[in-house]
Structure formats: structure tokens, C-alpha cells
Amino acid sequence: MKRCALFLLALLLSTTAWAHKPSDSYLTLRATQGSNNIAVRWDIALRDVDYVLQLDRDGNGELNWGEVRQRSDDITKLATGRLALSSADKACTLTSTGPLMLDKHSDGNYAVLSLSAQCEGLAKEVKAAYSMFFDVDPTHRGLVQWIAPGSDKAQALVFGTESASQFLALQPTGVWETLRQYVVEGVWHIWIGYDHILFLLALLLPAVLVRREGRWEPAPQLGGAVKEVFKVVTAFTLAHSITLSLAALEIVTLPSRLVESAIAASVIVAALNNLRGTLENRRWVMAFVFGLIHGFGFASVLADLGLPKDALVLALVGFNVGVELGQLAIVAAFLPVAFWLRATRFYRLGILKGGSIWVAILAGWWLVQRLFDL
Fold it and tell me: Can you tell me whether residue 167 is helix, strand or coil?
């Protein structure tokens, strides 16, 4: 069990510096009624393209439009070699239909490709095979909005190493499929949102302990620990559900850099609190206050996925349910191990104190990166 706990801690702490926004690209595939062609818009992060094609010719660490434009043919060639569409076992031909453009997303600049997939015919379904950056980053994902012929409703699909080939239905999907898609995406997002996970775990680490005379001691009963965990998780869930809904419905919006920086700061505060025990019985207050900020972070991901206009509430509910299910899975894995180890020096010193210090340092680096857009 101790080895398992060490492995879990190491896994959580050995994360990339930009913890909240992993490597994604965004595709919109639109089929037109009565046509065999599929219009493709593909947004690809310049930082990812630069890593593969070395766009930064002068090596100054910054990309300018001239450097990107000179390699536009190479970028298009890279992309078209990593996306394959076919129907009725016949491959569609991908061609460029416009010049390379740039667009800005929440995590930086993206190259925008306009393509057309010319198919001999569209029968029943279209097979899409996606392999962009999987060879250099197994966590990369392609986020697809598929619009079937004669429909204005987008179907959300996620391409990863385990789901590199998928079928695009030519008939619009039902409401339950939309709900399922966004539940799955919500679960996935909380699992790869390392800053969200570390904030939650930093609040939960002391839940199996009690503070007496300035010292942490093991909680006498599991019931007390469960009650503390319930208060923290409920407060965090309620808070981020409020702001996620407000932001997704465009009632309240905040600048992305401000949100991401505040999320990193929340992790620091939660981790350092474990060293002093200042809010030992009121961690749920911290969970609620900072949970409001985390909700805006969740909303930015939901916005990148795209919300179907005719199923806005359904997609929002599905994503939020997915986040909660993923969160509960993390808690269910954490609590039994933490309670079993609570009386050991390994837990009180190694995990609670040592882990909190390391989390604070890591989150401090995230904060610097996000504040100064490094």
C-alpha cells in the first residue's frame, strides 16, 4: 500500500508545467446536403507544430508570422498526413482551400487550416482516422465537431491514442448520445486537470488527521474523515458548478490568464495551509471560494469543445456530471489509502508536509508561467 501511495504521489507531481491546458487541436467537419465533399477547419497549436517542425528559425523562443508563413506548406503537409477520411472503404482526398491563418485560443496562438475532403460518395457513415502528434505526445487529443448533412447540430468527438479511428454518423445523433459524449469529456477533463486534482487533494490530505496542540494526529474514526471529505467535496462541487454554468451560458466571463493564474494560486494556498493548519476545520470554506475560480477554468475547456445550441443545457449538465464522477473516483481512490496510512510518519511527514511543500513549489512555477505567459 505504501508503494502504491508513493507511486500515486509521484504520478501527480510529475506533471507538465502547463497543467490545466493539455495539447489539443480542434477540427470542425461539415458535410453539406447533396454534396460529397466535407469542409474541414483545423486549429493546431503553434507550440505543438514548432516542436515537430522547428518553426522558430532564429531561435529566440518566439514565433512571428513570417516564420509561420514560410512553412505553411510544411504545416499543411504535416496535417493532411495525420488525418484520413473515407466512406464506403474509399478514401477521401484532402486538399487546401485557402491560405494558412492564425487564431488565438485560451492557451496561445493556433494555425488555422481550411481544407476540403473530396469523397466519391457518402454512404451511411464516414470513417475518420486521426494521428496528429501521437508519436511525440501520447496525451494529445483531437477535439472534433462533426456536422452531418442537412443538420446544424454538431456532434462532439474526441480522438486520442485509444480512439484514433471513429465513425461519423451521417444522421444527427440523439439527445442521449450528446449527454454521454459530454459526461465522458467531463470525466476525462478532471482526470487530466492536474491543477484541479492537486487543489482537491491538498484540501483532502488533512481530512484523515486532527489538529491537537499544534500537531497533526490520526483521526480516531473513519466516519469523521468521511464527513470532512464530504464537506470539502460538496463545497467545491457547488462552487464550480455555479461559475461553470454562468460562464458557459456567457452570463459572466473572465480573462483566461487571470483565471489560470488564480487557479495556480489556489493550489499554493491550499498546500501551504497544510503546513500551518490555519483552516483546519474550515477547509470547506476554502474549497467553496476557490471552487468559484476553478469553475471558470472548467468553462474554458467546455467552450473549446463547443456547446451545441439546440442542446446547450443537456451538454452543460453532462459535462458537469462527468466532472463530478471523475472527482468522486479520485476521492474513492484516495480516502482508503490515506486513512490506512494516517498514523504513520510516512503520511504525516512525507505525504502531508513533504507533498504539500512540493505541490506549493510546483504550483508556484505554474503561477509564474501563467502570469507572464511563458
Answer: strand
